[in-house]
Amino acid sequence: MLTMAYIGNGKSTNRYHLPFVRKLADKILVKTIYQRSNSSWPELEGIHYTHDLDDILSDPEISLVAICTPQSAHYELAKTCLEAGKNVLVEKPFTNNLAQARELFEFTKSQGLVVQAYQNRRFDSDFLTVQKVLASGKLGDLLEMEMHFDYYRPQVPESNKSFKPEESFLYTHSCHTLDQVISLFGPPEQVHYDVRQLLGSERMNDYFDLDLYYGACKVSVKSSYFRLQARPSFALYGIY
After folding, report:
1. How many domains does the chain have?
2. GO molecular-function annotation terms (predicted)?
3. What angle do CA 10, 12, 17 make, to 5 degrees?
4. How far apart are CA 165 and CA 175, in angstroms?
5. In terms of domains, do 128 and 76 share one?
6. What does residue 123 show for φ and ψ, rounded to 5 degrees?
7. Phi and psi torsions of 159, nearest 5°
8. Averaged over 48-54, what is the pLDDT?
C-alpha cells in the first residue's frame, strides 16, 4: 500500500488527481491534504485535512507527496519535501526554470528518492488512440502531425496586464502537449517557434504555434485563447 499526501486543495487536487487515485483504494491511501486556508472543495471522508505542513513532513507513513499549488511554489515545496525524505510528484509546470529542475533531480539522485512531473496527458484517450494508430502502421511513413489545445477564453488575456515568462500561456500550457510529442518521438532535431501577444506588447502571450522536426516529419503544436471553434486534438498525415 502506497501512503501519500497532497499539498494544495484546489482544482488540480480535486479534479485531476483524487477522482483517479481514489479508484485505486486497494493500492493507494491518501492520508493527508495540506491547505494554507480553507478550500471551497468539500472535505472527503477518511482524509486528514491540515493547515500544518509538518503533519506531512514528519509522518513516517507518508512516502509520496503530490504538489498541486501555484507553480511559483513548486520548487521550494518540492525541495522541502525531498529534504524530509519524501518522494515527490509535481504538477505542471514542474518549476519556473531549468536550473531549478536540474537541482531537484540532482538532489533526488543523491538521496535515492524520486521526483517527477505529473504528466497525466500521456494517458488521455485521444493520445492513447494516436499511439495505437501509429503502432498499427496504417498511415505508412508519418509526414505531419498537428496537435491543438484550444480555448475560447478571451477574458483571461484581457484581464492580464503584464508579462512574466514563467506565467505565460506558452510556458503553462505547452508543457501538456510538448510532453506528449517528446514521449512519442524524443527530442526534436529542430524547433521553430511562433509565439504571439495578440493584445499587444507587454501583455501575456496568448497564441503559440510550435513546429518540431524529426527527419521528414513535422509535428505542430498549436494553441490559442481566442479559438471560438476548437480544432481536432490530433490530425495525422502519412504516406506509403
Report:
1. 2
2. hydroxymethylglutaryl-CoA reductase (NADPH) activity; nucleotide binding
3. 120
4. 13
5. no
6. -115, 10
7. -90, -5
8. 97
Check whether 23 has a pLDDT greater than 90: yes
- Pick from 224, 221, 233: which is nearest to 127 by CA? 233
Of 66, 94, 118, the last residue of a domain is: 118
β-strand partners of 157:
none
- Whole-structure pTM value: 0.90
The answer for residues whose C-beta is within 8 angstroms of residue 98's C-beta and 6 or more apart is none
Cell of 178: 510538448
Nearest Cα to Cα of residue 116 among 67, 152, 83, 72? 67
The string of pLDDT tens digits covering residues 160-177 is: 877 888 888 899 889 999
Can you tell me the mean pLDDT for 70-78?
Answer: 95
pLDDT bin (cut points 50, 70, 90) of residue 206 is confident
Cell numbers 499587444 correspond to what residue?
200
Whether residue 150 sits in one domain with residue 101: no
